Amino acid sequence: MESKILWSSYSLMFLVFCSGAAAYDALDPNGNITIKWDVISWTPDGYVAVVTMNNFQMYRIITSPGWTLGWTWAKNEVIWSMVGAQAIDQGDCSKFRSNIPHSCKRNPAIVDLLPNVPYNQQIANCCKGGVLASMGNDPSAALSAFQVSVGSAGNTDRTVKLPKNFTLIAPGGGYTCGPAKIIRPTLFITPDRRRITRAMMTWRVICTCSQFLASPKPTCCLSLSSFHNGSITPCPSCSCGCQNSSNCVMKTPHGNVPKKVNKPVLRCTKHMCPINVHWHVKSNYKKYWSAKITITNFNYRFNHTQWTLVVQHPNLNNATKVSSFAYKSLMPYTAINDTALFYGRKSYNDVLMQAGAKGNVHSDLTLEKDGKTIALKKGWAFPRRVYFNGNPCVMPSPESYPYLPNFAGTR
Questions:
Q1: Where are the membrane-spanning stretches (predicted)?
Q2: Residue 369 belongs to what domain range?
Q3: HEC per residue, 330-366
């Protein structure tokens, strides 16, 4: 009996440890989405608050159809009105006769407005369709905000009770939110920068993403090739599922999906991944070597806006030239500089188009060699890890790598 109790205790400790570790990302240890409520004024039965959502994740983005923020009211609060966002469901407001609230749900679900709404329904940083860029590629687009007027809530910092059970739903999933905590009131500076005001009350919620919870199966795979070898190491078969007639469509002569086909949307491949990243070693010289990265979209109905690609390779600290893509070094640990963030340039290739002739983007890299520690052999020239939009790509098995000779090119 004691052994069963001990085993149960150890199992519980293991599950707790794993669930906590699942939300930790070694390449982005400080990444999170922070939601902050600033009460800017009190009303006779509640308050008006500005809610801001900051994506502090370096390479995870929130794509269309965008985020959905939810919570549970602590008392019997209602939402009188909103600017910059809206509640999906109004709920039962039958007890109100004249002035009908925007939402009477005890657990409202809030979505962002679309960019083309009238100006009187907008506030600063709202109305992006719920799309959030990552902090790494565009900090100005990694912020979303809306204003909410809350009633039946109390009108002082002593009578207001914080909402609880916050949830954040986004494409790909995997977000878990902690409890709301009261913090020091936010300071606001007027546009002329001559006056400072402060929030009446501020609380904060932090949401983290767990890859373990996010994707039940991979969505990306990596293939490899090199200049000295005519063969290609393809994505592993069934990397993201296995091919059958019910979950893919064959390529048409013009690369388009037949009009009668609504689902599925993936092009039939052996790996069945929506995204394929290909790494090709182009050249090997005494002082430098070069590689080409190609990202191909096999989804016929989805464009990737503000996409991100993260590559881990020990020589990326010596990247001297990156064409086409924007490039930023990620240094989660100051002593290690082997991870790079790549993303598209605005109005050029920041949108990865759906499958077809234009459904790919590519970049050439030039990297300086360190003769003491670098040798392009035994798979060294290929990435250690690759992430697309925050999702890890399935890697080929090491024994299948197209090994490179340990000498420089003759040109």
A1: none
A2: 217-400
A3: ECCECCECCEEEEECCCCCCCEECCCCCCCEEEEEEE
What is the spatial distance between Cα 74 and Cα 203, in angstroms, rounded to a whole number? 14
Angle among Cα 382, 387, 390 to the nearest 5 degrees reads 170
Query: CA 281, CA 298: separation in Å to the nearest integer?
Result: 23
Q: What six digits make up the tokens of 278? A: 């290909």
Q: Taking CA 14 as the corner, what is the angle to CA 11 and CA 15, rounded to the nearest 5 degrees? A: 90
pLDDT above 80 (res 336): no
Q: Are residues 227 and 370 in the same domain?
A: yes
Pull the structure tokens for residue 376: 């392009």
**Claim to verify: residue 252 and residue 291 sit in the same structural domain:** yes
- Give me the percent of the chain exceeding a pLDDT of 90: 61
Cα gap 157→39, rounded to integer Å: 9
Which residue would you say has higher pLDDT here, 316 or 230? 316
Largest CA distance in the chain: 85
CATH code, domain with 238:
2.60.40.290
Burial classification of residue 380, based on how many CB atoms lie within 10 Å of its CB (0-12 exposed, 13-18 middle, 19 or more buried): middle
Distances (CA, A) of 120 to 83, 111, 130: 8, 17, 19
CA nearest neighbour of 45 among 149, 199, 148: 149
| 112 contacts 84 by C-beta, under 8 angstroms | yes
Structure tokens that stand for 96 in this block: 């109100």
pLDDT digit string, tens, across residues 111-148: 999 999 999 999 999 999 999 999 988 899 999 999 99
3-state secondary structure of 322: strand
Interatomic CA distance for residues 180 and 278, integer angstroms:
43
Residue 68's nearest CA partner among 101, 29, 28, 108 is 108
The answer to whether residue 24 scores a pLDDT higher than 80 is no
Task: State yes or no: pLDDT of 67 exceeds 70.
Answer: yes
301 and 233 together in one domain: yes
Question: Which CA distances in Å does 16 have to 23, 76, 211, 388?
Answer: 12, 33, 16, 28
Place of tokens 């080929």: 396
88-119: b or e for each residue (b if 16 or more CB lie within 10 Å)? eeebeeeeeeeeebbbbbeebbbbbbeeeeee
Considering the entire predicted model, what is its pTM? Answer: 0.83
Distance of alpha carbon 139 from alpha carbon 59, whole angstroms: 11
Helix (H, G, I), strand (E, B) or coil at 115: coil
Chain CA centroid to CA 358, Å: 23
Structural contact between residues 85 and 67, judged by C-beta atoms closer than 8 angstroms: no
